[in-house]
Each structure stands twice: as structure tokens, then as C-alpha cells.
Amino acid sequence: MRYLLSLFFLLITLSVSAQTVLTIQGQTYTNSDETWLGVVIPRSSPTTLTFKNNSIRSSNLYGYMLQAGDETVAANNNNLDGATITGNRFTWTGTDMKSITHGLFTGHNINVNIKYNYLDHVPMGIIRKSTTNMVNTSGGVAYNIIRSTNVGIVVKGMSGVHIYNNTLYQDRSTSETWRGLIDIYTNQDVNPVSISHNTRIYNNIFYTKYGTTCINVIDIESLTGLQSDYNIYYCETGSPRFRVAGSLKTFEEWQAMGYDTHSKVVNPNFRDFVNFVPAARLNYGTNLGTAWAVGLSVNAKWGTTDPEKATQNGTWQVGAIIYKEVVAETPPPAVPVYTGSVINDATPSRIEISYNLSLTNIIPAASAFAVRVNSAARSVTGLSVSGSKVLLMLASPVVYGDAVTVAYSKPSSNPLQTPEGGQAASFTAQTVNNNRSAPPPNQPPVISISSPTKSEAFVAPATITIDVAASDADGSVTKVEFYNGTVKLGERTSIPFSFTWKDVPEGTYSITAAATDNENSRTVSATVSAVVEKAAPAVNQLPVVAILSPAHNSSFKVLAEVTLTVEASDNDGIIDKVEYFSGAEKIGESLSAPWSLSINFEEEGTYEITAAATDNRNAVTVSDPVTVVVTREPRRYPDLINLFPNPNNGRFSVEINHDSEIEPTNVIIVNLAGKTVYSDTMTPEETSRDFDLTSMVPGNYILLISGRDRILTAKQFAKY
470 with 352, same domain? Predict the structure, then answer.
């Protein structure tokens, strides 16, 4: 262990009525041991202690920095009654966040005055402790700066502790400390337990960076007589938090318990986080009387002499640093200070920014404000000033859970200001309290199968139409899926929710439908059982056929062209072909509609014409017969031509015997169906003609000679 005495050590011991007077001033203590009992104050007899303007610097993980009291019941308890510990600087340089090093420890001594001290990174800052239900009647913890501790001030088993005008700053996260800036609790290390009643907390500044607890009342018993008010609270990353008997409380819930009625959630706007001088007076305190009227000035420094002081003036200021009263002929106008901002549930597109003073209706440009929602910029479309509030209208509303910040850059023209001309300063991104309510839980969609019904039966191959009724009370149905068991048949994304299941074979099927809403909540319908029975063998229906023309008993001349027209249909299938018969002789067929055939009757006589229709299942129906009478005109020129050879292979010759009364002009060859396969004109001088018709199909043909619109003669020949 090493101690560096940088100044003088003054120890004066006087024996007056068995009372020892001990003053320790201007000393420097430096320790590098892991375990250290600290600067131990002698207390074997009643002692009037003054410990002032000293410096203690240590990195110990266990023990104390200043031990001015006892942990447990001892003969020298309360021998330091009324001690004064003032103007000292405590600096802890260790790195273990779990260290329990006690800083300024005054156990089992009442009425101690702990003022104007600076505690920097001390794990356990100021400890007021008792195991014997000690009660203070004077003294207190006031005007101290406590920076970056595990716990700032501890009240354990001691009543009547006054905590006034301190500045408590915490930049540790909740993973680095679970304790509060102030912890108050019953000392249960003894039996009977030692209680902590009537703690008074006024005019303090509580500043947390990461949402650690401001005031932690560890047990319900310690709420007895607790008073806390006229403080200011601020958290850089959210709202101030409190804890009561292990239950986390918001500022509003803490106030609802009856505490901090006049306190504010305000950014103290420290110039830096070393000296903790506010940018302006923080007039939020209450008058605590002349005994507590002197605080630290904005120029306070710690060394071997008293840090500079300042007396409360006007409205009491909060925190350890006090602005002196400024006397001027024309005081500058008060500067409006940003105190917080909020988005309320009723106005989700509006940020309400609060200042501590009323503002005049001078409107800066919207570009003076920068709003970010979940780290993305959100446009400001308009703003207005109402009293001490600035109302920013956003381009789109904020929703529950959004993280919102707002910043203000003081513009050169039309800055925010009071009616007296005090201009609001710029501020960097500040957290906006998002009070949007959580949306109600999504209601799942409702779905039922309206068709088929439970009693409906089908015959294979069946067509089953599945009709579904689907709705969503708080949204919309985006999809309906149709299932046979676990096999998906299909889906629909819009009304009507209907699916046609075709060619279903015989069997029993479990049909369900599932509806999905716009928030992906899914509901499956009750199962409908569908039975598809085996179909009875179908009886093929015969086709229907009738001859439309010619009419029954029609008369025609030999070789006249007759068009046979037939109507044919099939009720349970299709017509594959229609065949045409003259008596028993087939004279032609058609394989597709229209069903018709052209015929040239070569011989006179009476013909019985029928048509036979065959369907896709080979069923045949024969029409009723139609009788056709064919008569022959007198053949005036039977020997007009000779045709040879006959039969032939398609190569043959025709000799023409001219007569002065006849003038052959055309030669025509037709098949027995009446279709023309050859046609040409003749000259009056032509006496013979050779034909090469080898491309014709084998069969019987008729050669016709015509002239002056009439048939002069005809010859039948066969091609093999």
C-alpha cells in the first residue's frame, strides 16, 4: 500500500468533556492494492470529525476508500455523530464492474453532513447504514456530484436520511448495474431487522444514459414516510425508470404512487459530463431553508481548498451546481429550454415538443427540425406554436413500437423564442416518447363449407363444386385453399371462393378449406365428407338420321344432278359418319358435317334412297327411305360417239360421228356419285379425241356429250 501526502496533514485532538476534535484537511491518498480498508477514521471515543478538501484515489476491488463508521454493532458506534465530510474528491480507477468497493462510508453514525464532494466512478458511492434502527435528526447528503457508479447513494437500515440537491449521473448500462442511483432498503442482516423510514429526496438531478433505475426502493417497508419531489429526471434512451419491491415503474406510475408530483422529466443540458454545469438555471426546486441554501458554483474545482460556492437565489435550483444571482440593469430574456417530446395515441402524425417557457408565435422553417423514425428520415410537413409547445406535423403517422427522435437546428431567421426574445438553443437528436397503443391482437378468419353438404351424393366420374363462405372481422381474407384430406386441390384469392373438382372417381373424400387473412392468420373449416358412388353402366342412345332432300317421290331426268341432304345427331355422343345407299348399294359417305352427296342417275327407274348414321360407339340408325323416280329423255343420237377400249386403264379414245343437225360443244366425265372429274369444250371440226386419265381412281364413269344446253349422248366405261 502506498500513500502520497500532497499537502499537509492536520490532526488536532482536544479533550473537552471527553469529546475529541479531529480535522483532516488537504491530504492526498493513493492506493493500488486490490484489497484496502481505505482511510480509516479513528473513533474509539466520541469525536467531532471534519474531513475536508482531501483526495482519495484507488483501484481496490474490495474494502473502502473512506471508512468513517462501522458495518455492525460495535462499542464505537455513533462516536462520529454530527461529522462533516465536505469538499473531497473520490476517484476509483478500477475496471471490474462487479466491484463492491465502498466509497464514502459512514455506517452507524447519525446526523452526518456529507456535502460538496465529487465521487468519480466509485462503485458504491455514499453509504448511510445502520443495524440498530438509527434515526437522524439533522445532517444530510447534499450538493454532491456522483458520477458513473454501481449505486450512487445507499440508505440501508437508517431512518431520517435527507438527500438534497445532488447531481447523480449514470452512464452504465442495465447489464453493468442492476442498482439504482439511490437504493433504499431495510437491513435484514440482523434480527430484528433495521428499517429505513422517512427518507427525504428533494431538488436532485437524476441523469441516466441507458435506462438504469433512478430510485430503487427494495422493500415495501422502506416506503414508510418516504418523500420525493421537486427533482428532475432524464434518460437519453427512453423514459426514467423506478423500481419498487422488484417491480419496474415508469415515471407516470411512480407519480401515481404519490411521489414527485412537482418533479419534471427535463434534459438538464449539461455543458459536459465532467463538471455537470447546466447550460442554464434549472429553476425546478423548492426552498429547503437556510441550512441547505449554499451549493456549488458553476466554477467549482476540487483541491486543497474549498470548492467555490453559490447561494440559492430566486426560485431554488436543482442539482449540485447553482447559478449565482445575476444583477443587471436589463437582465437578458430567459432562454426556453427543451424539456421533452411526445407522440400521443390520438394524434399519431404529430410530435408535441415541450419547452419550459411559453413561446411567441414565430414559426421557423420546417427544415429546422429533423425527425427520424426507426433511423429513417420522416418529413415534417407543417408546424405550429401553442404556448410552451411546438407541434410538428409528420408526412405519415407513427405506429406502436416505432423509435422516434427529433432534433432542432436554430435557424438564422425566425428561431423559436419567448415573447421577451429569449431564443431556444439547438438540440441534437432527442428521444420522443411514443405513446401509441399496441394494436389489438389479430382475429383469425372465419370459414365454412356451404357446398357440398353432408347428405349430398355423387356418381363417378363426379364433378364436385366446393363453395366456401369466408370472412375476417378485422381485415380481409387474402386466400382460400381447398383440400381433399392433406392433398391441396387448388386455391382462390378473391370472391367467390369456389372450386370445381372434376372427374372425381368413386370413393369417400374428406373435404376441407383453409382461409388466410391479411396478417397470415389461418383457419381450417370443419370437414365435409363426400361420397362418390360407382356409376351404373351407361346405355348408348342411338343416333337420329333423316333425309331432308330430295323429297319423297321426287322425279328427275336421267343424268340430272341430285343433291342428297341429310340431318344427323346423337344425344349422348357424336356422329362419326353418314353412309348413303341406293337400295342395298352404297353410293357414298360423309365423315363430317354437312352431311350431303351429289348424285347423277344414269338409268331411268325408281330408286329407294336411305342414309345410315354411325355414332362414336358404333351404334347405327338407318333413315326412312326416300323414293326417287328417274325418267329418260328420248336419246336422239345414240351413235354419236364410239369409246374404246372399254374397259381401260384411263387411256382411251373417242370417235365423233358428226351430223348436220347436231353440234357437240362439250365433253364431260362424271363418276357414279355424280361428281365431275373431267370437262372440256369441243370444236365443230373435231372428229376424235384421245384421253389420258390414268390418275383417276378405278371405277365406273359416264362420258357425256352436250350441245346447246342439252345432253346429246352418254357412254359408260370402266377404269381398272
Answer: no
Check whether residue 657 and residue 680 sit in a common domain. yes
C-beta separation of 580 from 607 below 8 A: no
Q: Would strands 145-147 and 167-170 be described as parallel, antiparallel, or unpaired?
A: parallel
Q: How far apart are CA 136 and CA 133, in angstroms?
A: 10
Domain of residue 61, residue span: 20-271
Look up the CATH number of the domain holding residue 550.
2.60.40.10
Give phi and psi for 509, each to the nearest 5. -125, 140
- Rounded distance between C-alpha atoms, residue 584 and residue 622, angstroms: 12
Task: Give the number of domains in the chain.
Answer: 5
Name residues whose C-beta falls within 8 Å of residue 331's C-beta, 6 or more positions apart in sequence: none
Task: Please report the sign of the dihedral spanned by the C-alpha atoms of residue 646, residue 652, residue 658, residue 663.
Answer: positive
Beta bridge partners of 155: 128, 184
Distance CA 423, CA 415 (A): 7
- Cα 268 from Cα 232, distance rounded (Å): 8
The pLDDT tens digits of the residues spanning 262-290 come to 999 999 999 999 999 999 999 999 999 99
Q: Is residue 86 part of a domain?
A: yes
**CB-CB contact of 361 with 341 (8 Å):** no
**CA separation for the pair 339, 356 (Å, rounded):** 6
- Contact predicate 300/306, CB 8 Å: no
Beta-carbon neighbour count of residue 502 at 10 Å? Answer: 9
Last residue of a domain, one of 500, 533, 566: 533
pLDDT at position 622 is 94
Does 316 map to a domain?
Answer: no
Residues listed for the chain = 720
What pairing do the DSSP bridges indicate for beta strands 89-92 and 477-484?
A: unpaired
State the alpha helices, DSSP H only, in 86-185: none
Cell of residue 671, nine digits: 363418276
For 258, half-sphere exposure in the C-beta direction (CA atoms, 13 angstrom radius) is 5
Judge whether 4 lies within some domain.
Answer: no
The letter for the amino acid at 73 is: V
410/522 same-domain check: no
Q: And the C-alpha cell for 98? A: 462487479
- Whole-model pTM: value is 0.48
**What is the arithmetic mean of pLDDT over 607-636?**
85
* Predicted confidence (pLDDT) per residue in 209-264, tens digit: 999 999 999 999 999 999 999 999 999 999 999 999 999 999 999 999 999 999 99
Same domain as 199, residue 50: yes
Query: What DSSP letter does each residue of 186-232 carry, written as one string?
Result: -BTTSSS-B-----EEES-EEEESS--EEEEE-SGGGGTT-EEES-E
Q: Tell me how crowded residue 621 is: count the other CB atoms within 10 A of its CB.
A: 18
499 shares a domain with 399: no
Which residues lie below 8 Å from residue 543, measured CB to CB, with a gap of 6+?
Answer: 568, 569, 570, 573, 575, 613, 614, 615, 619, 620, 621
At position 330, the amino acid (one-letter code) is: T
DSSP tag of 615:
E
Please report whether residue 586 resides in a domain. Answer: yes
